Amino acid sequence: MTSNIQIDGNPAFARIPPWVKAKLRPNAIEKIQQVHDWVETECIPAERIYKKQLEGNRWRTPAIIHELRKKAKAQGLFNLFLPNHFEESPGLTNLEYSCCAEIMGRVYWAAQTMNCHAPETGNIELLAKYCTPEQKKRWLHPLMNGDMSSAYSMTEPDVASSDATQIGIEMEITDKEVIINGRKLYGNCQYNEEMQLFILMGCSDPNNPNAWNRHTTLVVPAKTAGLKQVRNLTIMGYDWAPEGHGEYVYENVRVPIENIILGPGRAFEIAQGRLGPGRIHHCMRLIGQAERAYELALVRCVEPRKKPRGKFIGEFDSNIERIADMRMTIDAMRQVVLNAADTMDLQGNKAGRYAIAQSKIMVPNALLKVIDEAMQIYGGQGLTQHTPLPELWTYARFVRVADGPDSAHRHQVGRDQMKTAREFRARAEQYTERYKELCKKWGLEPEEFWGIV
């Protein structure tokens, strides 16, 4: 089967590198084109409609989202993220989905219209990978159908959650139920009626000598007695309604033992299976945000009402160079993310952890710089609601911390790289030995070489 869609000169594929285009299958080409058309014609023009509808009730999903979700589902644009090794998958590889997700990222909520938004992507993949058929029927299928939304509850206010072994919310497992007590941060808001379940990670076996086997993951229905939302957490002044970020207290919350996923003590196995895809999905969408900021900067550069000293803003050398830096930064960001997605396809999530961590560290930081430069081009107006730039910047800054701060990922990358140091030391010693042989041949006195005598 071949696709009849022309790739060359097509704006849907304009930024996709040649090595990626060569790997796209016909069905993926069709989906990328569909997603591009969807975001350009349905989402971007509706941004201000979404904002206006949200004014009436901050914690109710705007009506336009419900309408668009029905249309997207009818067009086969639902759950595109789920990798093709799952039976529930629509069939895309991680690399192919990357091209779709970048386009989705052009509007903060566009992914939601296609059921490809966080935390749904990570939660659905977790449930698809680890749940029993009965659990899938209860939780996975309604989530994939868009009948409800979910939250992932891991971060806590009282411990350093970047070291997940410190997670301390108490889980007492009896023969029939799990009793939960403690506090959590960042799960999506209970205020939104569509948010119906938490996937919760807690400590069920605190005395286990193996710190990696102390924790359990389970599902907690959002309306369970004893589960209370204390407040919504603003992120740098934004409430991020209608999903938000809740602060929660669990007081003797009881759920059936059947709600445990995979088994007691297996939370870390589950978390690692979830976080790889979740992290890379964030980065995929951030490329689209970067492109949006870049395009807004170009629009400003040729705004006829803004001509300081009689010149377009884009005619000043400083801004020409600024645009060049933005363009090259985004292109580099994309290569990093696509490489990570391709590595996951070829070698699996675990083998691709370096590429995933690299994306998680580099992409949000680079995006912050791109958006900041766009703000500079807009001047004071770039800091206001006249453009999406402040919200784009805030979201990028949040993603720098989501799924772990930069330092945690750098430590992982650096630790893995340090394991190769002895190999390079041995190679350097071989260089030195060969150098000494050459000195003897040419009658020279050996000197210290690479710090090795």
Automatic annotation (TrEMBL):
Q: Coiled-coil segments, which residues?
A: none
Superkingdom as given in the UniProt entry = Eukaryota
Residue stretches making up the Acyl-CoA dehydrogenase/oxidase C-terminal domain: 268-415
The record, for InterPro entries, names: Acyl-CoA_dehydrogenase (IPR050741), Acyl-CoA_Oxase/DH_mid-dom_sf (IPR046373), AcylCo_DH-like_C (IPR036250), AcylCo_DH/oxidase_C (IPR009075), AcylCoA_DH/ox_N (IPR013786), AcylCoA_DH/ox_N_sf (IPR037069), AcylCoA_DH/oxidase_NM_dom_sf (IPR009100)
Key words of the record? FAD, Flavoprotein, Oxidoreductase
Cofactor names from the entry are:
FAD
GO terms (molecular function) for this protein are: acyl-CoA dehydrogenase activity; flavin adenine dinucleotide binding
| Chain ranges of the Acyl-CoA dehydrogenase/oxidase N-terminal domain | 33-147
A Gene Ontology CC term for this entry?
cytoplasm
> Which GO BP terms, alphabetically?
fatty acid beta-oxidation using acyl-CoA dehydrogenase
Pfam families on file: Acyl-CoA_dh_1, Acyl-CoA_dh_N
Among PANTHER family, the record links this protein to: ACYL-COA DEHYDROGENASE_OXIDASE C-TERMINAL DOMAIN-CONTAINING PROTEIN, MEDIUM-CHAIN SPECIFIC ACYL-COA DEHYDROGENASE, MITOCHONDRIAL-RELATED
Q: Which family does it belong to?
A: Belongs to the acyl-CoA dehydrogenase family.
Protein name, as recorded: Acyl-CoA dehydrogenase family member 11
Q: Which organism is it from?
A: Periconia digitata
